[in-house]
Amino acid sequence: MLAFLLLCFPSATWAAQDATPLHLAQNQVAVWNGGSLDQDRFDRFLGANAHYQQTGVQALTHLLQIRLVEIEADARGFKPNPAAVDARIQKAREQIEAAGQSLETILASRQMGMQEFRKLIADSLLHEDLVRADLQLPVEEAVTAEMLQSWTDQHIANLQEKAKSAPPGMVLDAPPYRISEQELGAILRQTMGNDDLVDRVEQLVLMEALPAWAQAEKLPLTDDVLYQEIEWRRKRVEENPAYGGATYEGLLQVKNSSIEAVLKSDELRVAGYLRLLAKQQFPDSWFENLEAEQRADIEAEYGASRYIGWILLRAHEEKTDDLDLTFEEAEKELLKLRERMRNADDFRSLATDYSEDEATRRRAGMLGWVHAREDGVPQALCDAAFAAPGKGIFGPVKIVDANPFQPLSGMALVLIADLRESPPQAELRALYRRGQHKALRRQFLNEIRLRCRWQRSFPTAD
Hints:
Elements: H1 2-6, E1 28-32, E2 35-38, H2 39-50, H3 54-76, H4 82-98, H5 103-109, H6 114-134, H7 145-163, E3 170-174, E4 177-180, H8 181-191, H9 194-217, H10 223-239, H11 248-254, H12 259-263, H13 266-281, H14 284-288, H15 292-302, E5 305-314, H16 327-339, H17 344-354, H18 358-361, E6 366-371, H19 379-387, E7 392-401, E8 408-420, H20 425-435, H21 437-447, E9 451-452
Antiparallel strand pairs: 1-2, 1-9, 3-4, 5-6, 5-8, 7-8
């Protein structure tokens, strides 16, 4: 439906129609009509956004593990003993040769030279010296692997705690440990997947290009637009059973963030500008001129909804294994379960025990609010939910979805826990506009002719 509706977009006016080919310079990660993004700026963006996220914590831990021994030894005046390094290398050589192998061959297979190996051995000895000093161990006492790991973990935990109070632009500022957001971002850039890198580039480009578009269109981004986005997010979290009753504020707190921080973020401002763009592209007059079929499509995706759950038993037309169920066998099993259900609580309890859809089984079979057509929900399930006369437990129904990435074949019982009528026209239009953000984002980036160092592995489905 969306591809069809996109044909109805009013003419785009946000980018100059310049056909001059765009080329990336060596230090650039993106270029577009009217702007470019260099690698240092991108790294700072990655580091700043990941500072309080799990990915940032992991990247900082990786950096500290690399630098910890060297920085700590230098701060204390510890130096590697060349004779001890030679002895440790000789011992390693003897052990390797006793196993019928060559040290040089092993180093070559790991693309490591002798000088690099010598540095590795020296750092290892310094690590032991640091642990021995902190634990006040005699020189002759061996340092165990457990001691080394415990010392490292404790130091990194202390530094991670200090990182929480780092000033702007820094991830850690606790001399001699100083790590900038740019350094952290560089680590993330080297470890992130291709599609994630494209997403981050696009987000930063939107942060720079959308304000210029809004200024040219004389569309100010006001506080009420930002609060509308906040309220939309609150409702999405509140209604999604996957969040287990958590609030938007609660989720932010887990991430060491807050509503106040979100309101100051560039990410929220991008969403706000997309709201302005959606309202410009889909004014009230656009809705008023829709054909009946288009109105029906919008109603199916944004209108009346039902709060549903299911118990799925996977099944096939024919058995390929003794453990497989046919559709008839799955139906009989579900009918037995249905006989044990007196109410919705029984349904949820049995869903937890028997449903074969793992994602919803963990939340007692509940999918949440679905429309007559819902992305990510098998159409047969939506059809069954809206064919039901009201609240209650219905089925079994046959569910077959030929999704190439997650094909589904089985039988299901369906719980209709609640019903909600279609929202008023003004709210319906607002929901539709918000639902077009992904498509508008893609179209905007195409219009400004974004060229990125990385390309998506697969085309995005708008």
